[in-house]
Amino acid sequence: MEQSKRSDTNNSVNYLESKVNIFAPSTPFMREHLKVIWWLFAAWVAIVFGPVTVTFFIPEIMANITFLGFPLHYFLTAIGGPLGALILSFIYARKRDQMDERYDIQHTAGPESIATKKGTE
Amino acid sequence: MIFSLLQLLPEALDSSFKLVPALISIAMLVLFLVIGYLYRIADTDNLWVAGRSIGIVENGMAIGANWMSAASYLGMAALIALSGFYGLAFVIGWSTGYFILLIFLSSQMRRFGKYTAPDFVGDRFNSDTARAIAALTTMLIGFVYAVGQARGMGLVGMYIFGGDYTVMVLLLMGITVGYVALSGMLGATKNMAVQYIILIVAFLAGLYAVGYTQGYSVFLPQIEYGALFSKLGSEFSEPFVNGSYYLWIATAFSLIIGTCGLPHVLVRFYTVENERIARWSTVWGLFFICLLYLSAPAFAAFGTDLYNETVGNVYGANGMSGAEGDVIVVLAAQLANLPSWFVGFVAAGGIAAAIATTAGLFIASSSAAAHDIYTNIINPEASQRQQVFVGRAVIVILGAFVTVTALNPPALVGELVAYAFSLAGLVLFPMFFLGMWWERTNRQGALAGMITGLVIWFSAIFNEVMPSYISFLEDLTGEGGVILPVFGDIFPAIGAALAGVVIVFLVTIIVSLLTEEPSDRIKQIVRQCHSPEPMGQQQTAEDVVDAKRNQT
């Protein structure tokens, strides 16, 4: 699988002719990218809105389970939410770096990099 | 009115002139002005996007400082202390939204590579009307948001300098306006890194000191405050007493998509060297934000417990007031009997937080006026000098408006800021998201969507917030001070974006489908934003597309 992607990366795809639609990715790069995005997005929804929703249905049970002194719903929201989002962000940035490597993308910096500077107005 | 302002600060907080805290604050303000002067700007690239030169950690810190305002530093602990579990909707909303921004917009926006948020709307939908609506929305967001900051500055300033509220707002806003007008985005970004360090050190030092001296915590107060729950009473943690499940979700959702629609947040991606740095600086930014956001509930818990023990009941009829809540971070340090220079240092961190965010807001607003409205619509021939002049003039005028409004602010710091979020989420986020992820979105769809968003936001604000200030509207209200309770239940001012954004998306999509497709050139610009091919530091997606089109 991973190997076959290499063959149809950069050179053979004309990105300016490939439609952009979040539900119908048209290039291998977008397909792969969106797969990462949707999985992580689903995890994010569960982490962010999961605890509060569960608490809505079973408030007593959540409040009676304690963890390090916290009622469970409080812990999962106040600490689980922000930390979970941070971890997911880290995973996404790592995944994108790995994709860049597979697609042979180098982000060079500095004004003398790639292409000619087309002026800044 | 004047009397109520003089009594803004709680009696427990001694608001007199304090020498050492005053010196610390003055030194800090002078430092901001010096940095602003050293990085003063003469051209528009440095004024709007810092020459696209900022690196990962520095931009991460700037994201953090730009983000964490008086609403995070002071307001969030207040909301948690006063509204318990509902307050956590703000913790979630103001932190986890960065993930959505990261996966759906950060790289693409960097590739789009213009100057401002209205630039995206105007260019993507090829419409000066859309650009103007986005620019006016940007200014409105900046205004509402900055009023909250000015209130925070005034409250903290009163505590440190002992002056009255009006004088403190005037003084601190004056300094902010001065250095932002002088230094533009480049100086503001350099300052934001410094401001982040000051605010996080002050906040964490305050938390650790209060926790340690009062025996609450030793190593990790962010976790150790769990031990206090049995003592704090059910108001602090019981779910859905201060707001229904729907309100909780609506608030968190609004803040999350507001995060993704705020122009001063978006522009941070335009200031970095390339898209990879845009991504990693978002991760760093969220890390820097989490340091404070994981600490704020602990601060609220310590403050609430100390208040209970030394002042009186937090909840109930004679409980803690909104104004007391808004300074609970400083109040906690004071109630813990920490030395006054230290309490002053904690307070000074709040000023740094308010100033950094106000700077970001003012630059986003002034670029909307000077770059998007003046240069793109009114005077396309404008020279760099003229643009910089208009930009500075707008900063000063907006500063004056904010200052005057802040003298009698309509709500708590945190609430004011939340209104700006629902506005950004309703009007700008759908345009960014659809514009970037569905190439078929066209001008008519965008215009219809943005107008729908504005109507929903203004309706929610008039329904719920304005009646307290405009007497003829007040006469229309029924129970709970709301004109139309049913509307208020579905579109609460603070969380109007939950139901609202669904409508805006539908309107935009349906109108787009009923009208003609956007041009090939526009579609190619969108496609270029999703291509993996690297781009030059100063190149925009438009440059690449136009170059290729000219070749063929």
Instruction: Briefly note the structural class of the backbone of chain A.
Output: mainly alpha
Spans of chain A of 5+ residues with little confidence (pLDDT < 50)? 1-10, 110-121
Give the largest interface.
A-B, 72 and 72 residues
Q: How much of the sequence of chain B is in beta strands?
A: under 5%
Shape of chain A: elongated
Q: Counting H and I runs of at least 4 residues, what is the number of helices of chain B?
A: 27
Shape of chain B: globular
The amount of helix of chain B comes to: over 70%
Q: Quickly count the helices of chain A.
A: 4
Seen as an oligomer or otherwise, the chain set is heterodimer
- How many E strands of chain A? 2
Please identify the structural class of chain B as seen in this structure. mainly alpha
| SSE succession of chain A | HHHEEH
Task: Please tell me the overall pLDDT of chain B.
Answer: 87
Strands in their spatial order, largest beta sheet of chain A: 1-2
Largest sheet of chain A: 2 strands, antiparallel
Order of helices and strands of chain B: HHHHHHHHHHHHHHHHHHHHHHHHHHH
List the helices and strands and how they pair.
The complex is a heterodimer of chains A (121) and B (552).
Chain A: H1 2-7, H2 28-57, H3 59-64, E1 66-67, E2 70-71, H4 72-102
Antiparallel strand pairs in A: 1-2
Chain B: H1 2-6, H2 19-38, H3 44-49, H4 56-67, H5 70-83, H6 88-112, H7 117-124, H8 128-161, H9 165-213, H10 221-224, H11 229-232, H12 234-237, H13 245-259, H14 263-270, H15 275-293, H16 296-310, H17 322-326, H18 328-335, H19 340-378, H20 384-406, H21 413-437, H22 443-464, H23 471-474, H24 485-490, H25 497-514, H26 520-530, H27 541-551
Helix pairs in contact in B: 2-9, 2-19, 4-9, 4-15, 5-8, 5-16, 5-19, 5-21, 6-13, 6-15, 6-21, 6-26, 7-8, 7-21, 8-9, 8-19, 8-20, 8-21, 8-22, 9-18, 9-19, 9-20, 13-21, 14-19, 16-18, 18-19, 19-20, 21-22, 21-25, 22-25, 26-27
